[in-house]
Amino acid sequence: MSFTVVLVGRPNVGKSTLFNRLAGKKLALVDDTPGVTRDWRAAPGHVGGLSFTVVDTAGLEDVSDDSLEARMRRQTERALDRADVALFIIDARAGVTPLDRHFANLLRKGRTPVVLVANKAEGKAGMPGLYEAFELGLGEPLAISAEHGEGMADLVQALMPYAKEDDADAEAQAAAGSIGSEEDEIPIGDQPEPEEDKAKPIQIAIVGRPNVGKSTLLNSLVGEERVLTGPEAGMTRDAISVDWTWRDRRFKLVDTAGMRRRARVDEKVEKLAVADALRVIRMANVVILVVDAGQILDKQDLTIARMVISEGRSLVIAVNKWDAVENRALALKQVEDKLEAALGYIKGVKVVTISALKGQKLDTLLDAVLATYTVWNRRIPTSQLNRWLEGVLDHHPPPLIEGRRLKIRYMTQVKTRPPTLALFVNKPLDLPESYQRYLIADLRETFDLPGVPLRLLLRKGKNPFADD
């Protein structure tokens, strides 16, 4: 059975709490501050034997201008039009408000069926509001507590009429696109190779400082206003995931909150949003770092880049708003110089100049993403590695330690994503870091491994494949 359930209501009635309950994971940010959720997001939902797509939305506001609240409302209306059933949520403890009545009138006139849900109805404090809800004209309200899981059996019965048999159920759930799903949580290096499972989408995290054009880039790629954009910095809070296909390759694009320097982050909601962005980076296959062409690779950009590399993710840098740059040669030279100074140990990070607003060079950006993803998954045959190692040791052996030479016996690749190699040395603790950097740099050049982190693990022992 597969259908879509959208959660709607005014701000701070518990939509995101119910979303997390139905999704079975803490995917949406939850806080007492009204208006935390701004974009709609979807995930596979499961309750009482029903499987469906559940959609969390921003709180409804009675505005229709060009303000942020009005743009949030239009996003919610767009999600509502695509749903099979809407759960209209009110706060039973607060009772029915004029805003609840206003949107109940609008929902009654719409084409999407509505189920009235009175949340926070645990205990006696919610009873007056529950009785008031009858006056909304949406039928008998369901009394639930999203936080404590009460009333879920009644919710299942209310959703049952909208469930429909569908052979594509599994595909629909996969298309819901929730970061943090089970397939995302497979440990790095234990994931199947792309050639073994090309049906899985490539996870792409779009990260950067606030107001550099991350959300505009996602909207331009998918060809619709999927996430809110505007001049206000810090608009995105939840990590919003969108499934998308380009040239027969499946992608999961994830827009994240802008990441400011830690010293400037003081609001609780922003801290939660940045923590969510860091989680997305850890789950990603490729990270697109969006930077502003007017402030190319400032200190915070480079901090984010180093963070991506330290997490073992592959990195592509998108220099946005390139159409506004006058001296482009000078700007590119600045990029090269800053990358060499800050990330000189990881040669070949791909840099693509784009205009997300005008849709310029987005295909070039995606080509760079696929090329970097391929390198990130590369596996080098053991025989080639050891022929290379033999040549390196002949031309540049390790330095003497206390008058004795270290014995490097063997090398093999133990993981991909990122390429991780084990080097067997008689005294691994004595091998200088400078020599390890030399080996990694030569590996990167010899086997054409640009722009991705390489990990070298030192192991003590003899060649494991040699005869005793």
Automatic annotation (TrEMBL):
<dbReference type="InterPro" id="IPR005225">
    <property type="entry name" value="Small_GTP-bd"/>
</dbReference>
<feature type="binding site">
    <location>
        <begin position="119"/>
        <end position="122"/>
    </location>
    <ligand>
        <name>GTP 1</name>
    </ligand>
</feature>
<protein>
    <recommendedName>
        <fullName>GTPase Der</fullName>
    </recommendedName>
</protein>
<dbReference type="InterPro" id="IPR016484">
    <property type="entry name" value="GTPase_Der"/>
</dbReference>
<dbReference type="GO" id="GO:0005525">
    <property type="term" value="F:GTP binding"/>
</dbReference>
<feature type="binding site">
    <location>
        <begin position="56"/>
        <end position="60"/>
    </location>
    <ligand>
        <name>GTP 1</name>
    </ligand>
</feature>
<dbReference type="InterPro" id="IPR031166">
    <property type="entry name" value="G_ENGA"/>
</dbReference>
<dbReference type="InterPro" id="IPR027417">
    <property type="entry name" value="P-loop_NTPase"/>
</dbReference>
<dbReference type="Pfam" id="PF01926">
    <property type="entry name" value="MMR_HSR1"/>
</dbReference>
<keyword id="KW-0690">Ribosome biogenesis</keyword>
<comment type="similarity">
    <text>Belongs to the TRAFAC class TrmE-Era-EngA-EngB-Septin-like GTPase superfamily. EngA (Der) GTPase family.</text>
</comment>
<feature type="domain" description="EngA-type G">
    <location>
        <begin position="202"/>
        <end position="377"/>
    </location>
</feature>
<dbReference type="InterPro" id="IPR006073">
    <property type="entry name" value="GTP-bd"/>
</dbReference>
<feature type="compositionally biased region" description="Acidic residues">
    <location>
        <begin position="181"/>
        <end position="196"/>
    </location>
</feature>
<dbReference type="InterPro" id="IPR003593">
    <property type="entry name" value="AAA+_ATPase"/>
</dbReference>
<dbReference type="Pfam" id="PF14714">
    <property type="entry name" value="KH_dom-like"/>
</dbReference>
<feature type="binding site">
    <location>
        <begin position="320"/>
        <end position="323"/>
    </location>
    <ligand>
        <name>GTP 2</name>
    </ligand>
</feature>
<comment type="subunit">
    <text>Associates with the 50S ribosomal subunit.</text>
</comment>
<keyword id="KW-0342">GTP-binding</keyword>
<dbReference type="InterPro" id="IPR032859">
    <property type="entry name" value="KH_dom-like"/>
</dbReference>
<feature type="binding site">
    <location>
        <begin position="208"/>
        <end position="215"/>
    </location>
    <ligand>
        <name>GTP 2</name>
    </ligand>
</feature>
<feature type="region of interest" description="Disordered">
    <location>
        <begin position="166"/>
        <end position="197"/>
    </location>
</feature>
<dbReference type="GO" id="GO:0042254">
    <property type="term" value="P:ribosome biogenesis"/>
</dbReference>
<comment type="function">
    <text>GTPase that plays an essential role in the late steps of ribosome biogenesis.</text>
</comment>
<feature type="binding site">
    <location>
        <begin position="255"/>
        <end position="259"/>
    </location>
    <ligand>
        <name>GTP 2</name>
    </ligand>
</feature>
<keyword id="KW-0547">Nucleotide-binding</keyword>
<dbReference type="InterPro" id="IPR015946">
    <property type="entry name" value="KH_dom-like_a/b"/>
</dbReference>
<keyword id="KW-0677">Repeat</keyword>
<feature type="binding site">
    <location>
        <begin position="9"/>
        <end position="16"/>
    </location>
    <ligand>
        <name>GTP 1</name>
    </ligand>
</feature>
<feature type="domain" description="EngA-type G">
    <location>
        <begin position="3"/>
        <end position="167"/>
    </location>
</feature>
